[in-house]
Backbone:
């Protein structure tokens, strides 16, 4: 494995799962990095920069996914993607009046 390859585990937190809107946000974020980014579960990995591939994962709330990135900006990409999942793609809104993690 390349020394610039990193892996993280993320959990789908938003109630609707990885549907079109969060998949689009994920693709947009991943596309901003040069690294090759893969995401998947149960041994099936797909390109994180392809919305159709992401939707084939069928990732509902609570699904645990593995994200790996290979390239010079891999760690930055993984941190950003993990933050997106941790924020529930800004769909959980558990704290009324709290500022969105995606605003800014």
Residues:
């Amino acid at each position: 494995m390349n020394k610039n390859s990193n892996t993280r585990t993320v959990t789908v937190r938003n109630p609707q799962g990885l549907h079109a809107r969060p998949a689009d946000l994920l693709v947009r974020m991943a596309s901003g990095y040069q690294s090759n980014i893969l995401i998947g579960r149960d041994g099936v990995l797909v390109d994180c920069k392809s919305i159709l591939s992401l939707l084939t994962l069928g990732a509902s709330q609570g699904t645990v996914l593995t994200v790996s990135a290979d390239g010079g900006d891999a760690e930055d990409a993984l941190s950003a993607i993990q933050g997106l999942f941790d924020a529930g793609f800004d769909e959980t809104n558990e704290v009324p009046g709290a500022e969105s993690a995606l605003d800014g």
The chain is about 30% helix and 25% strand.
